[in-house]
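WARN no homologs supplied; continuing
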Amino acid sequence: MEITEINDLKGLQALEPEWKALLDNSYSATFFQSPEWIITWTKHFLDDRKLRVLVAREQGELVGIAPLFMTLQREGVTNRTIKFLGDPLTDYNDYIIHNDYVDKVLEGFCGHLHAHADEWNRLQLREMPGESKTLAYIKKKHRASLPVKQEETFRFRISEEDGSVGEIMERVEKKITERRGRLKKFIHSQAYSAGLAKDYAEFLSFMERLKAFHIRRWADTSTPSYFTDPKHVHFFEELHRLLWDRGMINLSVVRRQGEVIATILCYLYQDQCYYYTSSYSWEAKNISPSHANFLSTIGFCIERGFHTFDFGRGDESFKREYANHICRNYSIDVVNKPVLMPLLKAKQLFLGSLRENPRLYRKAKQVKEFLGIMHKSTVG
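OK structure emitted
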């Protein structure tokens, strides 16, 4: 088996036709392993960081891709850290491996990283699904890794045994509205309507509403909306144009008396619908407009023959209400230089204690931002 490395965007783009064929035969295929997502992310966020995409071929056939990059992180000492392309925007990360060559490819990728161990000192792989064979292999191979972090993910799975579209939706609606009398009254009123963008112009109009709702929702928190950052805005604009042309995106809205009051953005891949983000008018929050939109979007998934509506990572309470299947993502650190281990563990404990005290966490973040501004003014 031949293992090579791609270090430039053109090489990554040239791989796309074979990449898509590989995904059709890989257990790890999700929207977030698609070339549409990874190549677009790379174009907008790689900057001065270095591509380290590993490619496995068996007698010329593409049988594996490890979509990685290397960045410098300063944590007491400078770490040359290898991560997944797409981190931290991606809900699911993994190597992309042909089902017939899993063990052989994993051995090849591990051997390549080991042979170039002098070029990196930390392998930080986040958001790997619990069923990932990559995760199982790395945990077994590297016994000196930091503790594995866990995060729950939520899915609504649909099978033919669940009944007709009407029967499934009746059960879901009953479950969601039994504690929300106003929601039930609203979705059965003449003021309510729900629908999808009919063309790209309408899609863009709906996206502007989503961005405005999202920015307002997160304005007074320690993590402002990513739609306030021009780089993220440009990334999503290019991605969504591409996905619209390929039928891989869904933006649904709920209206009250003709006015858009809730939006949900989803990505479509194979037989799965991936929820990515949503927002709603703050003035309409008392009628739970996002729940009305989720009911509409799940109905769309069932009608189109999707088998899964994936709510992705994050522990928001509404995900637990809809989900009938709970999974886990795992993040793992492999440290190549043992001297770094105490520093990384100390950082992990410190950040954990900060997060348990939100007020202290916000203060620490403000201090960090202030020091960053002071440093720029001094350098300037």
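The chain has two domains: 2-149+330-379, 159-306.
OK
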